[in-house]
Each structure stands twice: as structure tokens, then as C-alpha cells.
Amino acid sequence: NLKLLSMQAKVQSQDVVRWIKSQSNLSADVIYCDPPYASSVYQPILNALAALSSVEPKRESLLILEHRKNQ
Fold first, then answer.
1. What's the Cα-to-Cα distance from 36 to each of 8, 33, 40, rounded to whole Å?
2. pLDDT for the residue 60
3. Tell me: the pLDDT tens digits for 11-60?
4. Residue 57: how many other CB atoms lie within 10 Å
């Protein structure tokens, strides 16, 4: 889908909290997280992002965090 849209992206298929904590320089237009719905990882994801001192969000960065309808 990214190729069809002529977009550049870096796709990571791994534990999102561990990946965020491993980043020394994170700059993104969009951060999309789709964790297992039954997990309790939502707050740890937000905490990990907030703890990064090197995050350089773009002026209009977007965080998309998928969750169950009833959460």
C-alpha cells in the first residue's frame, strides 16, 4: 500500500515499547501502533514516547493508537 501511494515509511513489526525505548533519535510525521487488543500496553506506549528526550515531533505529527471499540 505504501508503494502504491508513493510514500516513504519505516515499518517495524516488533514490541512497540521496546522499539521506542531503543530509539536515540526519533523523528516522525506519523506513529501508528496496533497492539493486540487484549493487551494493557497502551499507557506504557504513551509513557515510553513521553520519556524520550530525543523525540523531535514534526509540527503536525500524528499518533495513531489502535484499540478496542469499548476502550
1. 25, 10, 9
2. 64
3. 888 888 898 888 877 777 788 888 777 778 888 988 888 887 555 554 56
4. 15
Q: What is the largest CA-CA distance in the chain?
A: 35
22: cell is 531503543
DSSP notation for the chain: -TTTTT-------S-HHHHHHH-SSB--SEEEE---TT---HHHHHHHHHH-TTB---TT-EEEE---TT-
Distance of alpha carbon 4 from alpha carbon 17, whole angstroms: 29
